[in-house]
Amino acid sequence: MSADTENAAILDAFRAAMRHVASTVYAVTTGPVGDRHGILATAVSSLSFEPPSLLVCVNRAASLHEPLACAETFCVNVLGLANRDIAEAFERSRGEERFTLGDWRQEHGVPVLANAQSYFICRTAHRHEFGTHTIFIGELIDAKHREDATPLTYYDRRYIDISQASERAPR
Ligand SMILES: Cc1cc2nc3c(=O)[nH]c(=O)nc-3n(C[C@H](O)[C@H](O)[C@H](O)COP(=O)(O)O)c2cc1C
Q: Domain residue spans in the chain?
């Protein structure tokens, strides 16, 4: 097997396996009204409690990348089932147009979705490039959450309602 064929096989296996990893859906946003930017992301993780921090992996080709690289603050909006329309709007539009749907407000100078399941406003603390992506590490400056939200989950290339899943894992 050539190295190219082997690499293609590894990538195929990675894609197929990742497709079946159920992920929370986030809208990562930055910028002032009139120049707001955001993308949908699943490559987001809590990083540490000391300091409270999280990380976001953003493709350097994404429209958010440059504004995020220049911004001091950004927001990680955790989408709930009630925000599925926001996920779909982000998929079909670009730039400021992504913010025409939904109750977006400015807090700490960044767009937050008022009825998101939760949101985390961060100050960029560190950036690390790897492959096609930049990992942005943010230190938390504010967070809010709703007790009553059901998560929006991305699984097998579609949005699902995880609350409808069986509580028991099959053996
Ligand atoms: C469910 C879902 C998850 C995504 N996760 C990420 C992600 O974690 N990081 C990333 O850079 N792009 C991710 N993308 C792609 C971006 O949301 C976006 O579509 C892509 O960067 C092109 O955006 P642009 O048109 O603003 O350049 C995801 C897309 C979808 C639909």
A: 21-151
Residues in the chain: 171
Q: Whose CA is closest to atom 6 on ligand 1?
A: 41
Taking the centre of ligand 1 as the mean of its atom positions, its distance from the CA of residue 61, in whole angstroms, is 10
pLDDT tens profile 36-90: 999 999 999 999 999 999 999 999 999 999 999 999 999 999 999 999 999 999 9
Instruction: Give the Å distance between the CA of 59 and the centre of ligand 1.
Output: 8
Q: Looking at the domain 21-151, which fold is it? A: Pnp Oxidase; Chain A (2.30.110)
pTM: 0.96
CB atoms within 10 A of CB 152: 24
Q: What are residue 14's phi and psi, to 5 degrees?
A: -65, -50
Please tell me the distance between residue 111's alpha carbon and the centre of ligand 1 in angstroms: 17
